[in-house]
């Protein structure tokens, strides 16, 4: 429970920081892919490697992956239907047979209807999630954060010595 709360607080801190919106939105999109696809497969490893090689916010990815795991279970019948339709396409049967006979590719479990359906839905939807997250981050920083910073309550908090100490500590040690 404390891990989840720590991730939520770090995500809020991240939204309030000067971190680029593209990095955070890419983290949300990667978290969407990780949350929608079943865990412990080669796809998960590939997405995590992409997060390390590119400038993607890992904190945003972990917290969104956690929250997208729950709707993914509810969408399993839809994923099964889509995966079954993709796997039964006559034009792709030869490709799937070749992929299955390769050394590492079967670890992706692409032959499972839920894995295939969730992978297709997650990969097709992730650009839209990226754009939507980017718009939401802009709106949050533009409207909500600026309104909070102008309140008397926030100014009173900034005037306390505890806040000054935290700001100094955060600037020194991150």
Core attributes:
0% strand; elongated; 174 residues; 9 helices; mainly alpha
Description of the molecule:
This protein has 174 residues and is an all-alpha fold. Helices cover 79% and strands 0% of the residues. It has nine helices and no strands. It has helices spanning 2-16, 21-36, 42-53, 58-74, 76-87, 93-100, 113-149, 152-159, 161-173. Helix 2 (21-36) runs antiparallel to helix 3, helix 2 runs parallel beside helix 4 and helix 2 (21-36) packs antiparallel against helix 7 (113-149). The mean pLDDT is 84.
Give average pLDDT, whole number: 84
Q: What is the number of helical segments per DSSP (H or I, 4+ residues)?
A: 9
How many distinct beta strands? 0
Largest sheet: none
Spatial separation of the terminal alpha carbons? 23 Å
Question: Could you say which overall geometry the principal axes of the C-alpha atoms support?
Answer: elongated
Q: How are the SSEs placed, and which strands pair?
A:
Blueprint: H1 2-16, H2 21-36, H3 42-53, H4 58-74, H5 76-87, H6 93-100, H7 113-149, H8 152-159, H9 161-173
Helix pairs in contact: 1-4, 2-3, 2-4, 2-7, 5-7
Structure in a nutshell:
It contains 9 helices and no strands.
């Amino acid at each position: 429970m404390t891990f989840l709360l720590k991730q939520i607080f770090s995500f809020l801190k991240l939204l309030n920081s000067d971190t680029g919106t593209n990095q955070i939105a890419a983290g949300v999109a990667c978290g969407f892919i990780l949350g929608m696809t079943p865990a412990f497969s080669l796809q998960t490893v590939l997405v995590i490697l992409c997060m390390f090689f590119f400038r993607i916010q890992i904190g945003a990815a972990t917290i969104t992956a956690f929250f997208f795991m729950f709707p993914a279970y509810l969408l399993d019948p839809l994923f099964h239907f889509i995966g079954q339709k993709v796997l039964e396409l006559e034009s792709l049967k030869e490709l799937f047979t070749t992929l299955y006979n390769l050394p590492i590719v079967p670890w992706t479990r692409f032959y499972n209807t839920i894995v295939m359906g969730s992978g297709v839905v997650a990969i097709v939807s992730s650009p839209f999630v990226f754009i939507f997250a980017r718009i939401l981050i802009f709106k949050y920083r533009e409207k909500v954060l600026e309104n909070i910073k102008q309140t008397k309550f926030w100014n009173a908090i900034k005037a306390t010595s505890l806040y000054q100490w935290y700001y100094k500590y955060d600037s020194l040690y991150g």
